[in-house]
Write a structure and sequence with these properties.
Chain lengths: 297, 217
């Protein structure tokens, strides 16, 4: 068993619940032990950064501080499935190490709340941990129900690759492809695999945010893919939501199942629909039909 | 009200005393008569993310790669040129930082190594602090509601966030989207109740301190 501290992030408890459900369903089989950080808080993602930098970094740093205390020096690697959380935690870690002035302010804020952080935690994104630590061989071995005949589009989104592509190649990412192959499925090649889904604009500038996702869906559809897999919870939810509106943006409806990477692995491992939260998809029926799971509710 | 020490009128320098054989065009006139303000650029220069803005080579890579180009009133390239020209006012009123989706594509491709996305955040913060509301409003409101929720409860809450934001700012769109909200709720993906962390006291003290120390950066 490989032990990690675990930071879920808010959306894993809400819109992206299925991503986490599937993660918890496959973790033990893959030899991962995840210890959720006690009393973690929101990572201080993009909206807070727009308001106050010290606050955004302090929110992230509080989690690092709690993780450090809980890990007691034995566990120092903090895994999170959310690219946006990962980036926020990683950025805070960088700022504390490299930028004295900001670090001083963040530390003073932590102290005001009764927290302290020495700087020993290493935030890592789940996708990279799955490939570089668990390993594709292990995934392949556990894939008792290989997904033969499925063509899967690997959609990365932005923040696992930019600006820091930890554990992968920023220009030619391969981590998702490796996982897809390990599940026995075929990789569908398409452009726009690291294009922005426009998720942050869906609430504030829907006309543009929707178009960005619609373009990605069209590219995926043209690749002949049966389904889409992504390591990003925001992308996953955005593509699903936009897909309901594709007739307006593309002139026809795209009908793709859009899964989190943990759900894809779980399917190959033969986990049940419930365990993988597949029933939570907005187009659940279509998902199950594609996977040949209509009956196994 | 408060006079800006670094401000100077370029017109005074360029046109003063110059006998004018031909009047400058209206466009040129507005440009030349504009007050220049280099204070913000000087402050930006001291931040790790802003230090390289002056090194922009105006290649246009950033604007060419940006996925939200149709929404930009100025590309990052132009914003940086404007900053260097002392057009701080226009820069702070620009829509660009507010529609930037933080995709980091420009940042990883900028040949001058400018952390463009982080500069966009700095521009947003300064616009808020300077009380600029005109252009940016939507995302600005969204961001402040979000910030308030997480600094009080420690967790974000999509339902609370969206309903507060939409109800006040887009009641019609909200009615249109309520079907989606309902579906997400039925799928167990949109909890009605706000999650809260245990140590909210510590969190609030931390947030209060951070807000105070974070002024001006
Ligand atoms: S890519 Fe960089 S150097 Fe080129 S115009 Fe944009 S900011 Fe300037
Ligand atoms: S980070 Fe912002 S400005 Fe840069 S390319 Fe992406 S959306 Fe455009």
């Amino acid at each position: 068993m490989k032990k990690y501290l675990y930071y879920p992030g808010c959306s894993q408890k809400a819109t992206s619940r299925a991503y986490e459900e599937a993660l918890l369903a496959i973790a033990a089989d893959l030899g991962l032990e995840l210890q959720e950080v006690e009393d973690w808080n929101c990572c201080g993602t993009t909206p807070v950064m727009a308001v106050n930098k010290v606050l955004a970094l302090s929110l992230a740093a509080r989690n690092l501080a709690l993780a450090e205390a809980q890990g007691q020096g034995e566990l120092t690697e903090l895994v999170t499935p959310c690219p946006s959380c990962w980036l926020a935690l990683h950025k805070a870690q960088h700022a504390l190490a490299d930028d004295e002035e900001i670090a001083g302010k963040v530390r003073a804020s932590l102290e005001a709340g009764g927290y302290s952080y020495k700087g020993t935690i290493r935030p890592r994104h789940l996708l990279e941990v799955l490939v570089n630590e668990v390993g594709v061989e292990a995934i392949q071995q556990k894939a008792g129900k290989p997904l033969q005949g499925l063509k899967v589009a690997p959609y990365y989104g932005c923040q696992v690759l930019r600006p820091y592509a930890q554990g992968d190649d920023a220009e030619h990412p391969q981590n998702l492809e490796k996982i897809i192959r390990a599940t026995g499925a075929e990789v569908a090649e398409f452009p726009l695999q690291s294009a922005c889904c426009g998720g942050t604009l869906v609430a504030t500038r829907p006309e543009v945010g929707y178009q960005m996702s619609a373009d990605i869906l069209r590219a995926i559809e043209r690749s002949g893919a049966n389904l889409v897999v992504t390591p990003c919870n925001l992308c996953q939810a955005t593509l699903e939501i936009v897909q309901r509106k594709t007739p307006k943006f593309l002139g026809h409806k795209t009908k793709l199942p859009i899964l989190a990477v943990t759900q894809l692995i779980g399917l190959a491992m033969g986990k049940s629909v419930k365990e993988l939260g597949l029933q939570r998809s907005l187009n659940a029926k279509r998902c199950l039909r594609t996977m040949g799971r209509e009956t196994a509710a | 009200m408060s006079p800006q020490p670094e401000t100077e009128s370029r017109q005074e320098k360029v046109f003063q005393g110059a006998a004018a054989p031909g009047e400058p065009s209206a466009e040129l006139k507005t440009l030349f008569e504009r007050k220049q303000d280099h204070q913000f650029l000087a402050e930006l220069d001291k931040l790790p993310e802003g230090a390289k803005v002056k090194m922009c080579i105006q290649c246009g890579t950033c604007g060419g790669m940006c996925p939200v180009t149709p929404l930009l009133d100025h590309s990052p390239r132009r914003l940086f040129a404007m900053l260097r020209a002392g057009m701080t006012d226009e820069v702070l009123d620009a829509a660009t930082p507010w529609v930037c989706s933080s995709c980091y594509r420009c940042t990883v491709n900028c040949p001058a190594g400018i952390k463009i996305t982080e500069v966009m955040y700095a521009l947003k913060r300064r616009a808020i602090q300077a009380g600029r509301k005109a252009r940016s409003s939507d995302y600005q409101r969204f961001a402040s509601i979000f910030t308030r929720i997480v600094s009080r409860h420690g967790r974000s809450h999509e339902m609370g966030l969206l309903s507060r934001y939409m109800m006040f700012h887009h009641p019609v769109a909200m009615a249109k989207q309520s079907g989606l909200g309902m579906r997400l709720m039925l799928k167990g993906r949109m909890p009605l109740t706000q999650e809260k962390i245990k140590d909210r006291e510590g969190l609030r003290r931390m947030a209060a301190k951070a807000l105070e120390l974070g002024e001006g950066v």
